[in-house]
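Table S2 (text version). Query chain:
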Amino acid sequence: QLVESGGGLVQPGGSLELSCVGSGISLATGVMKWYRQAPGREREWVAVISALSAGANTLYTDSVKGRFTISRDDAKNAVYLQMKNLKPEDTAVYYCSTVRGTMPYWGQGTQVTVSS
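Corresponding C-alpha cell output:
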C-alpha cells in the first residue's frame, strides 16, 4: 500500500512537502504520480517521475509548473511533492499512485488546504 502524509492548512504563498511511502511494495522500479481531487471536481494528475533507471524524469501539469517539485528517494522507498507559493486553488486531497503490471495502487490521500 501507499501512505501519504504532510498535508495541512497553509496560508497562500506558503509551502508544504508531501510524502508517499510504500508499505509492502517497492517504489524503486516504477513510475510514480501525484494526483489531487478538489471538492466537486474530478481527480487530476499533478506530477510524475520516472524510475531512476530511466533518468528520474519529471513532468508537471501546467498549473503547478515552477511551484511544485516531485522527487524520489528509493533508499527510503518514498516519493515526495514539494509545493511552494501555494494558492487557494491548490486546495485538494492529494494522492500518490503507481501501477504494477495492470494493478493500480493508490494511497488514502492527504488533505491540503490553502486559506488565509
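Notes on Table S2: The first strand starts at residue 2 and ends at 5. The chain has a mean pLDDT of 95.
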